[in-house]
Write a structure and sequence with these properties.
heterodimer, A: 115 residues, alpha+beta, B: 297 residues, alpha/beta, 6-stranded parallel β-sheet, 5-stranded antiparallel β-sheet, 11 helices, 11 strands
Chain lengths: 115, 297
């Protein structure tokens, strides 16, 4: 994550909090093999604004968004293992060859944002 | 150590604030472990630029686990090559045994996700000429805080450098008076004359702490002349070895834009530790495919 990514992410979280919305935060915590994004890549899933940042796009990201939906409802964090090991000839975007673990958690508007 | 709760938004903001102010901050998030622990809990260690003692915010829910996390975070902060990633804390570790979770869970380790934000990297472009423009642009794109410095105020202008963070008018006799250099400074010397490049180079080499990168534009002949003069002035081989000149990766760059790309590639290579060789040569996918004995298992 570059400094600008960090800034965009922090701003997205703070904006959602100001508006009183809960959103989900997804973080790649480990990877094995080739993955489009590496450890530390983050994405905010804001039900109103959509996505800020990316954990790699494509099918893998779709699984993470699905998890974010559950986490937003339940409030319970999840660890999602995303396999990007589909056969090349399926023409799926998930052919990078790697596996990544994504931590998905709810960010509540009551979460103190400091300052 | 404080027992206050630090949420994801607050942690993100803390890390951003500390690194923007020139300090280093690291955060541990509990992402897995024995039942009954608050997954998502965070603890943040911050060390300010002035090297005053590190401070702690937040908690993972138990004092021994916090102590283990702080120890890991301090190691990460101290290691300049330390990367973000998972860190396991065994409940049998002396530091975490006292949580009492070890027996109940049958030894499920705590899993912490550690991340660190170091002081913002700076790119200082000395000379506001035709290479400086694309360089400032690329530097900003790569996440550097960009400073452009020149003794001619009508060159270091906002119109010419829309995405530079700072535009500084400086005397090349004392170029870094208003731009303090540090371990995260990346310096590119591209003034309008090699006399100025040389003066700035000598200043940069004498700076303590040393900048992370000193690049200087110039042909082989000009670089050689610079080195001869440096040696005459008493600089040793180790000082010369710190200078990246001629500057950039060998990609056949000719135009100012191409040269800026070559320099940007060199900066990425130094930060990430690549080889600078085309990936095709490194991976040799086709050769491995057609030569079975050399293929991947």
């Amino acid at each position: 994550m570059t400094h600008e990514d960090d800034r965009a992410l922090a701003e997205a979280l703070i904006e959602a909090r100001r508006a009183g919305r809960a959103c989900a935060l997804a973080t790649i915590v480990s990877t094995r093999g080739s993955t489009p994004r590496k450890v530390g890549a983050r994405m905010v899933v804001d039900p109103d604004r959509g996505l800020v940042g990316t954990v790699g796009g494509g099918c893998g990201e779709a699984e993470v968004i699905e998890s974010a939906r559950r986490v937003l409802q339940s409030g319970r964090p999840e660890r999602v293992r995303v396999e990007l090991t589909e056969d090349f000839t399926t023409w799926s975007p998930a052919v990078c060859g790697g596996v990544m673990d994504v931590f998905v958690e709810r960010v509540d508007p009551a979460d103190p944002a400091g300052g | 150590m404080t027992a206050d709760r630090v949420g994801p938004a607050q942690a993100a903001r803390l890390l951003l604030e500390v690194s923007t102010a020139g300090g280093t901050a690291a955060c541990a998030t509990l992402v897995g472990g024995p039942e009954g622990h608050e997954v998502g809990a965070r603890i943040v260690r911050s060390r300010a630029a002035d090297r005053s003692p590190a401070t702690t915010r937040g908690s993972l829910g138990s004092a021994p686990l916090d102590a283990a996390a702080v120890e890991a975070l301090d190691r990460l902060i101290a290691d300049p090559r330390g990367r973000d990633g998972l860190h396991a804390v065994q409940p049998s570790d002396p530091a975490s045994a006292a949580t009492g979770a070890g027996e109940a869970s049958g030894g499920t380790p705590f899993e912490l996700y550690l991340e660190v934000r170091r002081p913002l990297r700076e790119l200082v472009v000395v000379g506001a000429g035709h290479i400086a423009q694309p360089m400032a642009h690329l530097g900003a794109l790569l996440g550097y805080r960009v400073t452009v410095l020149d003794d001619r105020p009508d060159f270091a202008t906002r119109e010419r450098f829309p995405d530079a963070d700072r535009l500084v008018r400086a005397d090349f006799g004392d170029p870094f008076a208003d731009v303090p250099l540090h371990e995260r400074s990346h310096l590119l010397l591209v003034t309008r004359g090699h006399k100025y490049d040389y003066e700035c180079l000598v200043r940069a080499l004498r700076t303590d702490p040393a900048p992370a990168y000193i690049g200087m534009i110039g042909s082989r002949r000009r670089v050689r002349a610079t080195y001869v003069q440096l040696v005459e002035e008493g600089f040793e081989a180790d000082a010369l070895a710190r200078i990246h000149a001629p500057v950039g990766l060998d990609i056949g760059a000719e135009t100012p834009e191409e040269i800026a790309v070559a320099v940007a590639a060199e900066l990425i290579l130094l930060a990430r530790g690549g080889s600078g060789v085309p990936l095709r040569e490194v991976e040799r996918v086709a050769e491995r495919f057609f030569t079975p004995q050399d293929s991947d298992p």
